[in-house]
Amino acid sequence: MAKKYDLDEKKLSLSHDIITKVKAMRSKKAMEKAPLTREEELEEQVSNLKKALEYSELRNQGLMKVIEISSKEYGEDLLKKAGAKQ
Asked: What is the DSSP letter of 14?
């Protein structure tokens, strides 16, 4: 369990602005750690899956571009099967 420290301007010799920013950050973290409802969990999972799909599509486009460039430079189609020639 993490220790909690009181934020006091006089004890820490920090400005009031810094103290309020740290308190705001702490409250955000506490809110993030609050248990999610089943619906919120599913929404988060859908969001993560969408990001993963976008990444996969971007990666696929990059690999296809590499194949296209290599086929132009080396004159061989890498998408064809090697054993297709007869």
From this structure: -
pTM of the model: 0.49
Sign of CA dihedral 21, 23, 28, 33: positive
Give the tens place of pLDDT for each residue, 3-29: 666 666 556 667 778 778 877 877 766
Residue with tokens 């409802």: 37
| Those residues with Cβ within 8 angstroms of residue 72's Cβ, 6 or more apart along the chain or in another chain | none
**55-84 tens-digit pLDDT:** 999 999 999 999 999 889 988 887 777 665
- Which segments of the chain does DSSP mark as H helices, in order? 9-12, 16-32, 38-74
